[in-house]
């Protein structure tokens, strides 16, 4: 396997950054996320970031088009999108699996119809993903339980393995090979006979086998009353989730005549999410909202796209103010008694 | 550049480029249907049909600076007709708009009624209030292809006599159309009202529509739908022969914004037309 000595990490990042805009994990104990690399920035690879890389492909807020009203007429102009390649460095398997889920939604990789999302398609097509395998699980991580391999992900363009003193480097795609060659040409890569490291065992595990099937019979189960009573509908779970994809489209008016139409993240936890003009709301209460969130992740998404919409990153487990832990929900569902 | 829009771009071009961008359209005509419902005829800027829609399909209308909302649309000759009840911010802005104003339109979204399933059969239409709009687009299609369908019956319910939408069609055109029975009920009558008084499910029960070779098409508020489903099943209609079209809050129209799902179905993509048999297999959440 090709290896990159950790001492040369900064040189490697400089090379990447001169090839394309580079985003790396950075921050502190309180907050960390993927930020644009510049010389001197301290890269944080000890554990996963508080916020995943989702916003680089699906921004928290983005302009769809601007409008300008003149009397009865209006001009609309789409906001041009940058189409330069972007390198996202240090993506963990859970967050990469979440990107695969977003691909399903926004690139409509399903026989059940839909249309490619223009902005997502451009960003995704130009993203080069450098993944970093995990050796140790954080206390809230449970990706293995959700069918994700923490040590590597096949959808990475370039996969890094933590070998202690160095990173193992393996390219999966032409884009990844390009990056690997840049390092090689600068003499940063060596060839070593090493085995791929295997991650240590996880503190948090849950048996999610058969959960989708079981949930198909549990829409009216009393469990949702209990969980709904506990939830505050604060929405932090959906905000930090690397796979939650719901969005709203709103108007951001500059003045009476000019402004833009924006797309921004939304949450199924919020009261107006499904409220219709006139007041009817198919999911009016906390019970219905909580049920929707868990069923979407564990039943509806698997039914539609054949995979969980939870990748076990553990962020919602860590941040929920009332400890509404999805692994606990899965356990309760597995234990629940149902008729028939 | 693939992402710059030619002013002459058609709806299809726009959809290929960016499905969330509306095309510019204009309000060709506005008809005041009832005190709180207006019918908007929407055409391209050069007064052509913005895009074809089939009965039951949806379109997203935007008032620039106010927002967007989803509506059932019916294809006219050179325009799309959209009936809008004034209930919220966007519909209020639409009601304030004048003929000639530029607006945005995108779509069509969803699957309309499967017209071939109805071919050769008797049709029972049941509509509550503004729910008559999508039903009307199907009725218009049926009347344009009258020989392809059997006996027609419409049961319509409205809050009061002044809330009758598409009044001329309801009271003057359809009742004198070939083999077409029309019954109208109002929740609350006024002195000169001579028709039925009461709710739709009760009138359906009373009229006992014929079952043979009949498909039933319903649209209305959820409470009317659910109660009428029960009455139809009591009358021995099978869930496979009962169709409805649902509306949900929608933002994208293409199965991505997340909110219009019933179970794993998105109303915008997999609906808005569902048979009762299909709905019964989904969670009761609409």
UniProtKB/TrEMBL annotation, chain A:
<dbReference type="InterPro" id="IPR017900">
    <property type="entry name" value="4Fe4S_Fe_S_CS"/>
</dbReference>
<dbReference type="GO" id="GO:0051536">
    <property type="term" value="F:iron-sulfur cluster binding"/>
</dbReference>
<dbReference type="GO" id="GO:0046872">
    <property type="term" value="F:metal ion binding"/>
</dbReference>
<dbReference type="InterPro" id="IPR017896">
    <property type="entry name" value="4Fe4S_Fe-S-bd"/>
</dbReference>
<feature type="domain" description="4Fe-4S ferredoxin-type">
    <location>
        <begin position="220"/>
        <end position="252"/>
    </location>
</feature>
<keyword id="KW-0411">Iron-sulfur</keyword>
<dbReference type="InterPro" id="IPR009051">
    <property type="entry name" value="Helical_ferredxn"/>
</dbReference>
<protein>
    <submittedName>
        <fullName>4Fe-4S ferredoxin-type, iron-sulphur binding domain protein</fullName>
    </submittedName>
</protein>
<dbReference type="Pfam" id="PF17179">
    <property type="entry name" value="Fer4_22"/>
</dbReference>
<keyword id="KW-0479">Metal-binding</keyword>
<feature type="domain" description="4Fe-4S ferredoxin-type">
    <location>
        <begin position="301"/>
        <end position="332"/>
    </location>
</feature>
<keyword id="KW-0408">Iron</keyword>
Automatic annotation (TrEMBL), chain B:
<dbReference type="GO" id="GO:0006221">
    <property type="term" value="P:pyrimidine nucleotide biosynthetic process"/>
</dbReference>
<dbReference type="GO" id="GO:0016491">
    <property type="term" value="F:oxidoreductase activity"/>
</dbReference>
<keyword id="KW-0411">Iron-sulfur</keyword>
<keyword id="KW-0001">2Fe-2S</keyword>
<dbReference type="InterPro" id="IPR012165">
    <property type="entry name" value="Cyt_c3_hydrogenase_gsu"/>
</dbReference>
<keyword id="KW-0479">Metal-binding</keyword>
<dbReference type="InterPro" id="IPR019480">
    <property type="entry name" value="Dihydroorotate_DH_Fe-S-bd"/>
</dbReference>
<protein>
    <submittedName>
        <fullName>Cytochrome-c3 hydrogenase, gamma subunit</fullName>
        <ecNumber>1.-.-.-</ecNumber>
    </submittedName>
</protein>
<feature type="binding site">
    <location>
        <position position="257"/>
    </location>
    <ligand>
        <name>[2Fe-2S] cluster</name>
    </ligand>
</feature>
<feature type="binding site">
    <location>
        <position position="260"/>
    </location>
    <ligand>
        <name>[2Fe-2S] cluster</name>
    </ligand>
</feature>
<dbReference type="InterPro" id="IPR017938">
    <property type="entry name" value="Riboflavin_synthase-like_b-brl"/>
</dbReference>
<dbReference type="InterPro" id="IPR039261">
    <property type="entry name" value="FNR_nucleotide-bd"/>
</dbReference>
<dbReference type="GO" id="GO:0051537">
    <property type="term" value="F:2 iron, 2 sulfur cluster binding"/>
</dbReference>
<dbReference type="InterPro" id="IPR050353">
    <property type="entry name" value="PyrK_electron_transfer"/>
</dbReference>
<dbReference type="GO" id="GO:0046872">
    <property type="term" value="F:metal ion binding"/>
</dbReference>
<dbReference type="Pfam" id="PF00175">
    <property type="entry name" value="NAD_binding_1"/>
</dbReference>
<feature type="binding site">
    <location>
        <position position="268"/>
    </location>
    <ligand>
        <name>[2Fe-2S] cluster</name>
    </ligand>
</feature>
<feature type="domain" description="FAD-binding FR-type">
    <location>
        <begin position="20"/>
        <end position="115"/>
    </location>
</feature>
<dbReference type="InterPro" id="IPR001433">
    <property type="entry name" value="OxRdtase_FAD/NAD-bd"/>
</dbReference>
<keyword id="KW-0560">Oxidoreductase</keyword>
<keyword id="KW-0408">Iron</keyword>
<feature type="binding site">
    <location>
        <position position="252"/>
    </location>
    <ligand>
        <name>[2Fe-2S] cluster</name>
    </ligand>
</feature>
